[in-house]
Each structure stands twice: as structure tokens, then as C-alpha cells.
Amino acid sequence: MALFLSQNLSYIWADSDCKFYTSLNLNHYHFESNSILLLLEFIKLMSKKKILYIDLDGVVVDLMLEVERELKADDQNYKGIDELIDNSETVFLNAPPMLHAIEAIEELEKYYDVFILSTAPWGNIHAWSQKRIWVERHLPSLYKKLILTHRKDLLKGDFLIDDRTKNGAAEFSGEHIHIFEPKFPDWDSVLNYLVPKN
Q1: Domain that holds residue 108
Q2: May I ask which residue range the UniProt record assigns to the signal sequence (predicted)?
Q3: If residue 189 lies in a helix (H) or strand (E), which one and from where to where?
Q4: Residue 31 has what pLDDT?
């Protein structure tokens, strides 16, 4: 007897005659031995997670805290926030995570296919690589799932967690979870909404 594991199925097993069964809801699904591909498609369909995009700056990364720190240090005599963001070689790299963001994302990964979706300033050539390094440091399971774009509305998915409506967030085809607004004031409220209740 062979045992096949699947995320959303208790188990799938094959008997000596190569008939396949699953324990899902105590119903038995039968496939002939020449239907292995059908079985694999069945498993894939049953284990498919919804797609969740999460914005980076101001949602996962406390960028403004690092901006304020660098402006106070003022090593480069920046004239303001915009000039610093467009020129700093460290601001995106050194910013700390937002409170509870990392833990919340790790929890959401159990239920969703999570991608980090961010916009990088055109004027700062360092920002693109800094964001990639930041994600690898703080969310190592997601650094290959980082998408940088100025058109978030072009991506297909089920949910987008974003603190703004700019760069296509308002036109996103799925549900825009506008974090740090009255309906979703913090990460706990997002988890309460997105994590399935047992």
C-alpha cells in the first residue's frame, strides 16, 4: 500500500490493485491505474491556495522610521524625504519591520500563496536590490516571490494588503485589504479576517 500526502486531504492511498482512494469527508474517490494524471490534477486542485499579495513599504517595512533616522543623521544634506528616498543607498535596506508584520505573514503563508508586491522609486537604483535583500533577511521563504512593479492592477490574485491606493492598488481585481485604515487598523485585524476559523 502506498501513501500520498496532500495539504488539504487527510490522506490518499493506493491498494494492491492500484485503485486510489482519499479519506476526504469519508467519501471514497476511485481512479483506475491509468488515471494517475487525473489523480495528480485532483490533488493539485484540492491543495490550491488563494493568491495573496502584500505591499512592502509602510505595511511590512517601517520605512518612515528609517527615513526619519537618516534625515536626523543628515550625512548627505538631503532637502527632504523625497530626495532621501531617491538617493539613499541604505534607507530601504536598514528599515526595521513593522510591528507584528513578520509573524502575521508567517501565519498567512500557511493558508495562502503569498507574494511580496512593491514599488521601487525610479530615481534610486539601489532601492531595487535593497528591497530584495531586505526580504531575504526578514522573510527568507519569500525572497524569490518578490514582485516590483508600478502597476499592481496588472497582477491577478485574490487579495492585496496595501496601505495606499496608488500604483494600481485601488484597481486591483481581487480584494484590496486597506491596512491601517478603520476596517483593518493593524495586522491582528487582517489575520482575523483572512485566517480561516476552525
Answers
A1: 50-194
A2: none
A3: helix 187-194
A4: 45
CA separation for the pair 46, 29 (Å, rounded): 13
The one catalytic residue in 15, 55, 153, 162 is 55
Q: Is 55 a catalytic residue?
A: yes
Q: Cα(160)–Cα(117) distance, rounded to whole angstroms?
A: 9
3-class state of residue 127 by DSSP: helix
Residue type, 157: G
Quick one: DSSP state of residue 152? Answer: G
* Beta pairing, strands 50-54 & 159-162: parallel
Domains held by the chain: number: 2
Burial class (CB in 10 A: 0-12, 13-18, 19+), 145: middle
- d(Cα 29, Cα 98) in Å, to the nearest integer? 46
Catalytic one among 17, 57, 82, 162?
Answer: 57
Record the pTM: 0.74
Q: Which residues of the chain have pLDDT under 70?
A: 1-47, 74-76
Phi, psi of 108 (to 5 degrees): -65, -30
CATH of residue 185's domain is: 3.40.50.1000
Answer yes or no: do 115 and 70 share one domain. yes
